[in-house]
Amino acid sequence: MRSTLRSVRRQLVLSLGHVALGLGLATAGASSAWAENAVVRIGYQKYGTLTILKGKGDLEKRLAPLGVSVKWVEFPAGPQLLEGLNVGSIDFGNVGEAPPIFAQAAGADLVYVANQPPSPTAEAIVVPKGSGVKSVAELKGKKIALNKGSNVHYLLVKVLEKAGLKYTDVQTVFLPPADARAAFERGSVDAWAIWDPFLAAAEKQIGARVLADGKGTVANHQFYLASRPYAHKNPGVIKAIVSELQKLDVWAANDFAAAAKVLGPEIGLNQEITELSVRRFAYGIQPITTTVAAQQQQIADTFFQLKLIPKAIRIAEALPDGVGK
Fold first, then answer.
1. Residue ranges of the alpha helices (H) in the chain?
2. Which of 40, 115, 255, 298 has the most crowded Cβ, counting Cβ within 10 A?
């Protein structure tokens, strides 16, 4: 474990410089950008390392000497968060794989900043504990709740495909997580495509049974994105956020219990549930690579073929300078 963490630390130090340079955000001249925006508005959801960073308060400490404060804005899911980015209510945030694709198709001027490694077990299709459904193939004709445009949207497409079903073979019911859980508990839907910590809560609190997770099917990357105009005007802020996330990753990967203790109050869940989620997160923030960009393009192409987005998009147009172009 220690040698792995040392390797992660070395990689993260190298990655930080690559992230800043890849965005065209050289630190020279960054000091003038601090004064342009005295507040950085960060969108977050009830999961992940960005929310742990909020709970720890390290970013505020990092930015305070530079005269920059942090405003945290909560969103129920990734699509809503990126809509906030699109309309200018936030400057930075993190989401799963699908939301940036929907946002780009809607014309959002965003840029991928970095991503976490894959965490395929942190999302799943679940059924009630008393359900007679024992396999994904048995979902044919069934109602499945999910948040439209979230990472689980692609998960559902791929697990159905793996089971020999088409996306149109099931009835999708688009609901945000809280409403989806209520429908799931009422029996209004037969299954639920959901991510951690909602997944862990459903498992521990109501005995939801995992029918299929993303392992062997999808990567489930988490992405950090910024408004492109904000990123270009405020390179030092972006670099500071990534730097603090790198430090946090090393700390959290070495102490899941401590990370869960910070995250729990932020998401309103107990230590056991939160720690299960934390253990399924992936740590080691990385700059966007051509490989990850190609995976995103595949998702975008799939969504266009299914007519889930109104037009074909090129992921390259939302990448940092010099990546995938």
1. 2-22, 30-34, 48-56, 58-63, 78-87, 98-105, 151-162, 177-186, 198-206, 228-233, 235-254, 256-267, 271-280, 290-305
2. 115
Distances (CA, A) of 222 to 19, 113, 179, 258: 15, 11, 23, 21
Which residue range is the domain that position 128 belongs to? 120-213
Picking from 163, 189, 213, the residue at the C-terminal end of a domain is: 213
Question: What's the confidence (pLDDT) of residue 322?
Answer: 62
Q: How far is CA 201 from CA 31, 154, 197, 259, in A?
A: 44, 22, 6, 17
CA-CA-CA-CA dihedral for 168, 139, 214, 223, to nearest 10: 40
pLDDT the model gives residue 66: 87
Pair 168, 228 in one domain: no
Q: What is the pTM of this model?
A: 0.87
- Looking at this protein, which amino acid is placed at residue 35? A
Model pLDDT, residue 320 = 87
Q: State which residues of the chain have pLDDT below 70.
A: 1-37, 322, 324-325
For 257, the 3-state DSSP assignment is: helix
pLDDT, residue 23, reads 53
CA 295, distance to chain mean position in Å, is 15
- The three-state secondary structure class of 79 is helix
CA 139 – CA 133 distance, rounded (Å):
7
From CA 116, how far away is CA 246, in angstroms rounded? 10
- Residue 9 pLDDT: 42
Beta bridge partners of 210: 126
Residues ≥6 apart with Cβ < 8 Å to 311: 105, 304
- Domain with residue 236: its CATH number is 3.40.190.10
